[in-house]
Amino acid sequence: GTLNFPTPALQILPVTLFVLLTCWLASKTSAWAYSGSLLGLLFCIASNGDGLFMTVVGAIVYLQRKEYKKLAGWCICCVLACLVYFYRYDFTVEAVHTNSNNVILNIFQHLSPAYALAFLGDIAAVQNPLPAILFGIVLLGVFLWATWDRLFERRPALYYPMLFVMITGAAVSGHRSSLGLVTALNSAYRIN
What we know:
Elements (H helix, E strand, L loop, with lengths): L5 H21 L4 H17 L5 H12 L3 H18 L27 H8 L8 H20 L2 H4 L1 H21 L16
């Protein structure tokens, strides 16, 4: 994918780095790590709009550990970051790379499990989405098993980036599923 269309792969590198860093820091309990995770969140959001999904992941981290003061600080930081990010944002514009004039907030109406699975498993296919869907099912199964096995308690720095990717896959399906299942395999939209 990177050789065919290098720009998206390069664009996703900083947010991926900051997501991994933020998840690793959020998994620690020290005050310095917490401050670093807040800074990492800001870098996630500043580097790419997908970094906004980290707001949910971080909230889940602190909620599961019952660290309510840190959760409150995280939420305040998220609200402030969103206020800056969405300042003068036009929510009525046509959704990017779609054939419809849907308001961007209406993408939740178009969530497609098949598209999300193909997006998650796109590395297993080139043109036919079926292998991508099957591999997406495997990846989702591994994630659900890790959740059931409470991996977030033993290896939070490993679990929470997986949660970020799952949330991103669901959001992408709502945003681009109207273009057809094959677009989930497009190298411009991959996380690879």
